[in-house]
Design a protein that fits this description.
By secondary structure, the chain is an alpha/beta fold. The chain has helices at about 15-30, 40-55, 60-75, 80-95, 105-110, 125-135, 150-160, 175-185, 220-230; strands spanning about 5, 115-120, 145, 170-175, 190, 215. The chain contains nine helices and six strands. The structure holds magnesium ion.
Length: about 230
């Protein structure tokens, strides 16, 4: 039986990755002035991955990585005005409107009351808190957890803190490595809801062969899946 449903936020409840990809294009246009025709995209990704451990996930770390990559790619030639332009790109991202995915409010309303609903998101605490407030969805969740990373140990700690039995918990999200696989490791359920864009860092190779792994095309398919799980023999 299932009693708890935990949701990822970025690209599960609201659009996020497009914001990063759009900003990246603007960043590339700036650096391209110095390095026409070169692969700026991969160079930025490499800097981002190198910095992830130190800066964590989120817009502020991404902005610093853009600045560092710009200095590196232009061999220090980038101007202060252009660095300012890059910092402004980051600020614009922080203030971008929160654009909910289709059917999110109806789905959360259907889950609330029947199950304990949690939000588990990784990233910067100010950024994620502000997005949740602006989304208007905060009242749907009994608990909100903003964590530095999402792995089995982090989910185990969250479950222990809130008295949740992982086997009775369903984690719903767009990322296989962050949302689905760690919950399967704890013998909980993992529901994958693919988003139209995927950050290269969240890519995965093969789907797990496991009866607790589920994939739905859209979030609004979740209530029907939960019904099936509740009806299944324990
Ligand atoms: Mg996500």
């Amino acid at each position: 039986m299932v009693d708890t449903v935990a949701f990822d936020a970025d690209d599960t409840l609201w659009h996020n990755e497009h914001l990063f990809q759009d900003t990246q294009k603007k960043f590339e246009a700036i650096v391209c002035r110095y390095r026409p025709g070169e692969d700026i995209h991969d160079a930025l990704f490499a800097v981002e991955m190198r910095n992830l451990q130190l800066f964590g996930y989120g817009i502020k770390g991404f902005t610093l990585s853009m600045v560092e990559a710009a200095i590196q790619l232009t061999a220090g030639g980038i101007t202060a005005a252009e660095i300012h332009e890059i910092v402004q790109l980051g600020k614009t991202m922080m203030e971008a409107p929160v654009d909910l995915l289709d059917g999110v409010e109806e789905t959360l309303a259907a889950v609330k009351g029947r199950f304990r609903a949690l939000l588990i998101t990784k990233g910067d605490i100010i950024d994620q808190t502000s997005k949740l407030e602006r989304s208007g969805l905060a009242d749907h969740f009994e608990q909100v957890e903003i964590v530095a990373r999402k792995d089995a140990a982090v989910y185990r700690t969250i479950c222990a803190r809130h008295g949740i039995e992982p086997a009775r918990c369903v984690m719903v999200g767009n990322s296989m490595p962050s949302d689905v696989l760690p919950m399967l490791e704890l013998r909980g359920h993992g529901v994958h809801v693919p988003y139209e864009l995927l950050w290269a860092h969240e890519a995965h190779d093969e789907d797990p062969v496991c009866e607790r792994f589920h994939r739905i095309a859209r979030l609004s398919d979740l209530p029907a899946l939960l019904e099936r799980l509740m009806a299944a023999p324990a």
